[in-house]
Amino acid sequence: MGGARTALFNYLWAKRNGGRFLLRFEDTDRARSAICHEDSILGDLKWLGIEPDEITARQSERAARHAEVLALLERRNAAYPCFCAASDEAGAIGETSRHACRDIPGNEARARIAGGEKCCWRFRAPSGQAHTFRDRLRGIVSVPADSIGDFVLSRSDGSVTYLLAAVVDDCDSRVTHVIRGEEHLPNAPKQEMICGALGWDLPEWVHIPMILDGERHKLSKRGGAAAISRYRELEWPPDAIVSYLATLSWARAPTDRIAGLDELSGIFDLDSVALAPPVHDESRMRHFGREHMARAPRRELLEACRSSFGPDVGFMPPDAEKISLIDELAPACATLGELRSSLETELGYGADAQGTDVPKWLPAILERLSSIPESDWSSANIKNSLKLFQKELAVKGRDFFHPLRLFLTGRPQGAPLGIILSCVGKREAIRRIGRACDEPNKL
User: What is the bridge-based pairing of β-strands 204-208 and 79-82?
Assistant: First the structure.
């Protein structure tokens, strides 16, 4: 969810300003990188409609360029080799200690490397001065001088860290805005130091707040977050997910309706992104799902749900009758999967009629419904027949329709009975009522 929201904001800002939305696979952490993850990301973004204008190379494929820049930093005395044991990852996020290796003379360091000694490479961070940088949402951010140590640029196996690779790749791709999660805030001053040592222009930093769960912890699967791929499997409408994601921190996002990407990109403004961490609330996401389902073309929903109306057993209700049932159920559903389940529940037979007294008039309504020709078996004709029979009985609607529904569907409530009967079909309806008439003690 967090990655999709970040991608969405990047996409909207690029489109709003006539720019390009770039996607890069930052796979410098080899243990956590795999092609399958890339395929999943691309599939999720395509499903959401947030397709990049360009997919740049994986960072691991640009090792030669990264090594070239690292050598330039070394020549400028901005990087030095570190021979400390187990120091590869130290400093990647927030190390503050000063390393003794910083003061090793150059000729000695070169001799140790030539002798086969392993080393990583660290950035020589300026000491004794605070570092300030500007964030689009936070304004000027000041980092104390003693809070940034000599961070790692390249590991002992020769692979570079995210800190160096991202700076090089951003510069080479002419990136103007870096919109990312606030967990990257500690990286900004380090990346600015690298840019400064190289004499490169800085991008504009935009660190958006992280998404929290209901207990105001960082959103995770344990905290109720599903991966976008999971929402795809559950057949959530992608435009509903996009509309929901837009509301997470963006104050001007429409909250009362589905808004398409074109509309959102036309009004998106980074300055209206709030700093308060948003809370993931699936009930709010369901609101957008229901908005989509309520307005989705009924013919499209029917085609997606045909299998839920059961196999052809000699009678298949006309599409108009099926669409009438979909009209009744769709507004309460947030996904296609829920709509299919609702259709199958409405048209199936449950067990809630257990112990219900069989009314004396049940055989008579069975005879009345049996007299309707299959050619006239429609929700309108069935409704009129039931209403007329109720009046003839002189019983209240609830006393008539409630038990009849139980014997037909096994459920105490649901869509109008005329529509249910029409879609169940005459033969099945007669069979269900007949079973109640023939075996009342088993109900």
Answer: unpaired
- Residue 125's contacts (CB-CB under 8 Å, 6 or more residues apart) are 148, 149, 150, 151, 190, 193
Residues 361 and 393 sit within 8 Å (Cβ to Cβ): yes
Contact 375, 320 (CB under 8 A): no
> Nearest-CA neighbor of 76 among 39, 108, 33, 106?
106
The helix/strand/coil state of 427 is: helix
Label residue 66 by pLDDT band (50, 70, 90): very high
pLDDT of amino acid 93: 41
Could you tell me the pLDDT band of residue 412, with boundaries at 50, 70 and 90? confident
C-alpha dist (Å) from residue 77 to 98, 145, 158: 16, 19, 19
Number of Cβ atoms within 10 Å of the Cβ of 299: 11
| pLDDT at residue 125 greater than cutoff 70 | yes
Is residue 224 scored above 70 in pLDDT? no
pLDDT band at 434 (very low <50, low <70, confident <90, very high): confident
Q: Return phi, psi of residue 380, to 5°.
A: -65, -45
pLDDT band at residue 423 using 50, 70 and 90 as cut-offs: very high
Domains along the chain with CATH numbers: 1-17+210-295 (1.10.1160.10), 57-208 (3.40.50.620), 296-443 (1.10.10.350)
Task: Find the helix packing angle between 319-329 and 298-305, rounded to 10°.
Answer: 100
Q: Which of 9-18, 141-150, 216-225, 235-244 has the lowest mean pLDDT?
A: 216-225
> CA 162 to CA 215: how far, in whole Å?
31
User: CA–CA separation, 11 vs 9, rounded Å?
Assistant: 5
Question: Secondary structure of 371-416 in the HEC alphabet?
Answer: CCCHHHCCHHHHHHHHHHHHHHHCCCHHHHHHHHHHHHHCCCCCCC
Residue corresponding to tokens 């390009």: 20
pLDDT for the residue 94: 44
Question: Long-range contacts: 69-73, Cβ < 8 Å, 24+?
Answer: 69/164, 69/168, 69/198, 70/121, 70/153, 70/154, 70/160, 70/164, 72/198, 73/123, 73/153, 73/194, 73/197, 73/198
Q: How far is CA 420 from the centre of its chain?
A: 35
Region 94-102: what's the mean pLDDT?
A: 67
